[in-house]
Amino acid sequence: AALPADVKRVRVIEGSQVNSGDLLVELDDRDARLDLAQREADVAKAQAAIAVQESRHKADLETLPNERRLYNLVQAEVKRLVDLKKKQVSSQSALDTARQNAARQSISISRIEESIRTHDSKMLELQAALERAQAALAKSRLQLERTRVKAPFAGRVVKVLVAQGHRVSVGTRLLEMFENTSLMFRAMLPSIYVPQVRKALAEGKPLSVAGKVDGNEVTGHLISLGAEVRQGSGGVEALFLIDSGWGWLQKGRVMQLRLTLPNQSNVIPVPFEALYGSDKVYVIDDEQRLRPVIVERVGETWLNGKNQVLIRSPELKAHQQLLITQLPNAVESLLVEVVPGD
Q1: Chosen CATH of 5-28+147-178 out of 1.10.3720.10, 3.20.20.70, 3.40.1050.10, 2.40.50.100
Q2: d(Cα 295, Cα 282) in Å, to the nearest integer?
Q3: Into which CATH architecture does domain 183-259 fall?
Q4: Cα separation of 220 and 259, whole Å?
């Protein structure tokens, strides 16, 4: 949660598939709306202060010439009374009153001039206050928006951690979800296939992977190999980004995957029973005896409804007979009888 509030409503349940922007959780927005109203009032007040200052400045500019003319008239009156006083035809009190009027008029002019000189700085101060109020208003609107928790991406809800009426604080986890386009398989790649896969990655060749969940096809592609080998694992961990079939998956589910390796030449598909150890098969020579041949195990393939291993060796020739039955006592030169297959 981005703000403290009560949970008003939860719109999703565990397992829900959501699109980006879908509403997930509603928080009580009454406090946020009250704060928004206060911030809007602060902005209006700051805007009014700017309008008042601009109006005052306009009035000062219009008043100053009149005040200066009035000051000149008062000064002329003082001068006239001084001359009359010298002729003893005017009283001292009249002269004092005129001088007081002149002083007051001078002060009034100074105040107006000071107001005009400081107008720009006052406007800067008021503009800064307006910007602070506008920033607070924007933050308040953001807080109100955060009372409606929406999906940041298309994905699936894993867990819902709150319910209606719960009080949450800043940082409280509301739910867990994963993004469809970032969902990955994590699988152990047998060591014998690592060189081929590493080479294909270095050359930028795409390596696709496919599997089924409850009869539904799921596809993906290899993005990287692990940086370490776990002791006793017999392989390297590989990461596959899912391309399709997200809706059939659950986080943490175990499934079988088929990795499509780059095309290989001069390979032969044989049943797994034909392989002895990891790299040996037996050829049946013309005398019906076994002859061992060391082969390279290239990969596996699905052929005629069965999983078969792909092997390669320069010693394997066309039309040779291969032992495909597991014999516990198979050794070189062992005499065998060939029988037709099913």
Answers
A1: 2.40.50.100
A2: 10
A3: Beta Barrel (2.40)
A4: 9
* 53 contacts 119 by C-beta, under 8 angstroms: yes
| Cβ 150 vs Cβ 27: under 8 Å | no
Instruction: Give the dihedral of Cα atoms 196, 199, 205, 207; nearest 10 deg.
Output: 40
Q: What pTM does this model have?
A: 0.61
Q: Would you state the structure tokens that stand for residue 36, as one six-digit string? A: 């928004």
Q: What is the pLDDT of residues 56-100, one digit of tens each?
A: 999 999 999 999 999 899 899 888 888 787 777 678 888 888 889
Instruction: Return the top range by mean pLDDT from 143-152, 174-183, 198-207, 261-270.
Output: 143-152
DSSP letters for 196-256 = HHHHHHHTT---EEEEEETTEEEEEEEEEE-SS--TT--EEEEEEEEEE-GGG--TT----
For 94-112, the pLDDT digits (tens) are 888 888 988 999 999 999 9
Which helix (H) or strand (E) is 157 found in, with range? strand 155-160
Burial, 170: exposed, middle or buried (Cβ in 10 Å; 0-12, 13-18, 19+)? exposed
Nearest to 200 by CA among 216, 184, 223, 179: 223
- List the structure tokens of 32: 């946020």
Say what the pLDDT of residue 259 is. Answer: 87
Q: How confident is the model at residue 194 (pLDDT cuts 50, 70, 90)?
A: confident
